[in-house]
């Protein structure tokens, strides 16, 4: 199945985004900023309305598109989002200043590897993981610790443009470390006794998990 065509089709079937979200999305796409694809936009929008999370943590803000989307569709939630790349932080600050005036979005500036250990155990009922893909596996212990019982974890881009399903020898040598790490991540979220997970072959691959209640 051709991912771009599928995404284009899904985009056409979805209700239009609010004007400001559409503007941020178009600007991000024209600036070459990687943001969630239409099917993942639909998934988050659906989950925000159904799960109605109160405390969301996002790892990987970029310019704030997905954080603002979650903020828009989960009106009771506080969104904490982490980004470490200054050029994107500039734009994220501007977007949050313009569109999240009720201070329900907190931008934590810095490397998630340093920030996650400082956040509160069980403090989040929804975590969206969308940062450097090679780091997913190193963040997982902290993420499980941060997830409240019953809380949900959504991880984007777990298929690495399809590489993950190929043998390591079919993958370019320079992509093998990330291939191995992402396979390990998928194995860990699937096998963890603390989580129940499903791997969804949508967009570039998404895992959805929830933290089991003890
Ligand atoms: N979630 C955003 C959206 O859809 O609007 C897109 C996020 S983009 C795919 C990934 C972002 O994660 C990049 O802007 C990158 O700079 C950031 N990032 C990668 N590794 C990070 C880390 N260790 N700590 C904080 N941010 C990180």
Describe the structure.
- By secondary structure, the protein is an alpha/beta fold.
- The protein has a single domain, classed as Rossmann fold.
- 43% of the residues lie in helices and 21% in strands.
- The chain is built from 8 helices and 7 strands; from the N terminus they run H-H-H-E-H-E-H-E-H-E-H-E-H-E-E.
- Strands 3-2-1-4-5-7-6 form a 7-stranded mixed beta sheet, with helices on both faces.
- Strand 6 and strand 7 form a beta hairpin.
- Helix 3 packs parallel to helix 4.
- Bound molecules: S-adenosylmethionine (SAM).
- The site of S-adenosylmethionine has 19 residues, from helix 4, strand 2 and helix 6.
């Amino acid at each position: 199945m051709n991912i771009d065509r599928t995404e284009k089709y899904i985009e056409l079937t979805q209700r239009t985004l609010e004007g400001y979200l559409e503007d941020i999305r178009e600007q991000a796409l024209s600036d070459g900023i990687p943001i969630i694809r239409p099917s993942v936009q639909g998934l988050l929008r659906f989950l925000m309305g159904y799960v109605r999370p109160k405390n969301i943590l996002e790892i990987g803000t970029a310019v704030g598109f997905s954080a603002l989307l979650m903020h828009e569709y989960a009106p009771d939630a506080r969104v904490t989002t982490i980004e470490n790349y200054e050029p994107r932080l500039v734009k994220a600050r501007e977007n949050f200043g313009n569109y999240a005036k009720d201070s329900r979005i907190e931008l934590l500036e810095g490397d998630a590897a340093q920030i996650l250990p400082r956040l509160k155990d069980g403090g989040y009922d929804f975590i969206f993981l969308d940062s450097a893909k090679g780091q997913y596996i190193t963040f997982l212990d902290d993420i499980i610790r941060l997830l409240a019982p019953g809380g949900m974890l959504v991880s984007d881009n777990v298929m690495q443009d399809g590489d993950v399903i190929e043998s390591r020898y079919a993958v370019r040598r320079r992509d093998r470390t990330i291939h191995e790490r992402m396979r390990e991540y998928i194995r860990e979220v699937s096998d963890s006794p603390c989580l129940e997970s499903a791997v969804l072959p949508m967009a570039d691959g998404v895992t959805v998990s929830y933290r089991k209640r003890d």
